[in-house]
Specification:
By secondary structure, the chain is an alpha+beta fold. It folds into two domains: 87 residues; 159 residues, no CATH class. The chain is built from two helices and 21 strands. The strands form eight sheets. Strands 7, 8, 11, 12, 13, 14 and 15 form a seven-stranded antiparallel β-sheet that branches. A two-stranded antiparallel ribbon has the order 1-4. It has a two-stranded antiparallel sheet with strand order 2-3. It starts with a helix and ends with a helix.
Length: 287
């Protein structure tokens, strides 16, 4: 009788956590690059009602009763989110596999949110103030397009805004600028020059990445080491300019999941109250 009480409690806790995941998904329905999540459940260690000790079945008879439910972990939906045109020259969306890389003074992070902008010093930054990584191109004395395989080492994307004008981003994340130091007689006067191309990174196990705030992910031992690549080469996705990948949260699915979690919570509450009524009847057998 007491097992049903504790089983009901585990069900309440599990469905409460499920609602927390659903609430997080709905709250981030407009967050660029957000990936929805759900919980994985499993039954808790069974207790047998008819123990048969033998070398064959190791004490299990096939008459085991579960002791409730437990949350095994969080699963992320890595499906592609819809692409939305923004008209912002420095917005970029990944269509396919890969992550942008952003850095602060200490660590490297990864993100699918490409809402970038330049600061006053010409650094291309994420919304969290971290520097976007890319390949230096021939306009700055770097590598010519198309980039070789393997590509050069990525660096911070930093542009001298006093020199380079009319900064644009073309597809596959290539940044171009017009050299304002040239005069009308120069061959490249008014001609956009390739300055950087954004780098993409992939992992052997993206489910092993650690989720952080600010639309960021971090490499872990489970994810494996990040591998850098060029957009639209191999199995790396393409980078679409003037666009953002919006959240892949499906509101209709989340509302269905919400109803399911709510009803499951109510059912587990009923298990507890019914078990309590049965115990009360047992106590009152003798008056």
């Amino acid at each position: 009788m007491m097992r049903s009480l504790y089983s009901g409690v585990t069900g309440l806790n599990a469905n409460k956590e499920s609602m927390e995941a659903i609430g997080d998904n709905i709250a981030n329905v407009n967050t660029p690059g957000f990936k929805s999540s759900s919980l994985s459940f499993a039954n808790i260690l069974n207790q047998t009602t008819d123990v048969v000790s033998s070398a064959v079945n190791s004490g299990f008879s096939g008459n085991e009763i579960g002791n409730g439910v437990q949350v095994l972990g969080v699963k992320f939906d890595w499906a592609q989110g819809p692409l939305q045109s923004t008209g912002n020259a420095t917005d970029m969306a990944i269509n396919g596999n890969g992550f942008f890389s952003v850095k602060d003074d200490v660590k490297t992070y990864y993100t699918r949110a490409g809402d970038f902008s330049f600061d006053k010093d010409g650094n291309l930054l994420s919304r969290t103030g971290k520097k976007v990584q890319g390949f230096m191109l021939e306009g700055l004395g770097g590598t010519a397009l198309p980039l070789p395989d393997p590509p050069p080492t990525p660096v911070d994307i930093t542009i001298d805004l006093d020199r380079w004008e009319s900064i644009t981003v073309q597809d596959n994340g290539t940044l171009y600028g017009v050299d304002g130091n040239l005069s009308a007689g120069d061959a490249n006067f008014g001609v956009p020059q390739p300055l950087y191309q954004t780098a993409l990174y992939k992992f052997k196990n993206i489910n092993g990445l650690a989720k952080l705030s600010g639309n960021l992910w971090q490499e872990t031992a489970d994810s494996g080491t990040a591998t850098v690549g060029v957009p639209a080469t191999g199995d790396y996705g393409s980078v679409i300019s003037n666009s953002l990948e919006i959240s892949n949260v499906d509101l209709a699915t989340e509302f269905v999941n919400m109803i399911t979690a709510q009803r499951a919570f109510q059912a587990n509450s009923r298990v507890i109250t019914t078990s309590d009524e049965m115990l009360n009847e047992l106590v009152n057998i003798k008056r």
